[in-house]
Amino acid sequence: MGMPSANLTWLGYTPSGRMLDVEIFPFSDIRRRSPPAKVRATHRYDFHMLLLVTEGAPRQIVDFEPVSCSPGSVLVLRPGQVHSFGYEIQWEGWLILFRSDFLPTASEIASDLLPGRMLDRMPDHLVLDERDFRATSEAIVTMAADARADAAPVEVVHALLRHQLCMLILRLDLLSGRQRAAATRHKPALNRFARFQELLEANFAGWHQVGPYADALGCTQKSLNRATREAAGLSAKNCIARRIALEAKRLLAHTDRPVYLIAEGLGFDEATNFSKFFRANVGQAPAEFRAAFR
Fold this sequence. Notes:
The protein is an alpha+beta fold. It has two domains: 8-186, Regulatory protein AraC (Jelly Rolls, Sandwich); 189-291, Homeodomain-like (Arc Repressor Mutant, subunit A, Orthogonal Bundle). Helices cover 51% and strands 16% of the residues. The protein has helices at 27-33, 36-39, 114-121, 130-147, 154-186, 188-203, 210-217, 221-232, 236-254, 259-265, 271-282, 286-291, and strands at 8-11, 22-26, 42-45, 48-55, 59-62, 65-68, 73-77, 82-84, 92-98, 125-127. A five-stranded mixed sheet has the order 1-3-8-5-6, with helices on one face. Strands 2-9-4-7-10 form a five-stranded antiparallel sheet. β5 (59-62) and β6 form a beta hairpin. The longest helix is centred in the middle third of the chain and has 33 residues, at 154-186. The relative contact order is 0.11.
């Protein structure tokens, strides 16, 4: 079996057809419009993508890691993430593309801002049960039909689609919360791990040691390690290293930024220390990894 192309390109939001700030279409549209090599290509997005698999069992590639999907799988892809639809492209699903500013960002009503916050905390991969899969599919089909309402003024269609997208995100957050609650009810360590992940996402470039995270969580390093091992099968130190390495891979693959500046931005005092870290965690020197995406 082949693999997606390593050549990585930045993909901006350029909707086809009517100029809307959100685009909803089936994956088969991409297959029809593009040759297989382009469909399998690796991209880094400057927009959000919600992907719902409806048929087949594709293996997506997200941030250089495979993600096995099946009907009911929802991928939540954010600006800056690296993604490929994978080698197997004979599957079907729905894609929703939108920029961050399509969601409400300012309002006197606090609840209006919930969808953006819910999207930020949503896991990258959700698996829906049959009932939720059906409800989510129906909601997206309705959105796609409304987006094609050419007779309606654009501002009316935008307002409708914004409300529908907010409702969809809130629905997915409820489903995700229900799954988290069921898991943490029997495994309290998962709750600590979730809080650790939030801190890690915000501080990985500055906090390279376990101590600051344990202090912020109000627990011992031993307790934090126990939580990360139970939730992810890794020590807290390894979780931190993986997140730093992921950001390094993104920057090496997509930008021309010099290695010493990448090292500096990720909190390393010396480029040589960064190179040693990268080789230890990725198995290649930074220059070797970058060359594979050129």
